[in-house]
Amino acid sequence: MSSSAEISGASEAGRGASAARGLRIVRLVLWSLLAVLAIGFFLLRFGVLGGPSAPPPLLELPAYKLTDHRGAAFGAAELRGKVYIADFVFTTCPTVCPRLTERMLEIQRRTDDLGDALQLVTFTVDPENDTPEVLAAYAKKHEASPTRWTFLTGPLGEVETVVLRGFKIAMGKTQAPSGMMEIFHGERLVLVDREGKIRRFYEANDPGIEEIIRDARLLLKEG
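Now predict its structure.
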């Protein structure tokens, strides 16, 4: 018969072997992880794996021609070859429009290094009142860059075609409980590539601004 000492010794030996096997497994896992990380770094370093990329095209804008805040014809043809960010406001809006314009101004400031390669375009959703002269005053008031930020107006039907059918942004008028007509419109920003294709819609909040600036820079790097 085996003595208790022999049994205890065998048990200790078994536990020791188990611990050794566990340690070897842990080491193997750690070395495997290090190898994966090293390979990933190598692939990224030498461009085998792609880094962040701009969002893919969603839809193509139709050709359009409106009037800018200087009174000149301006539209898709003038923006061809440029990456641009669009928003939709009206100058007498007391609520969301000032915030949208402030967001566009923030984008202008934070992308100053890009020069006129990145354009900002604001479409009025109240073209019957927002004439080129009114838009010019609005642009000046909000310190819009004369070379990078354009404000567009035009006949109501043409503006609606561009905004509603092209950008898929809501706009219109509704009767308030007071009986007065109120203007409503979408509040998203839109990123458009050099070929006039919408890449993505963004919320006009802090995360949205970060994302649209990042994606605009990525688009410009695409060449």
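The first helix runs from residue 4 to 45.
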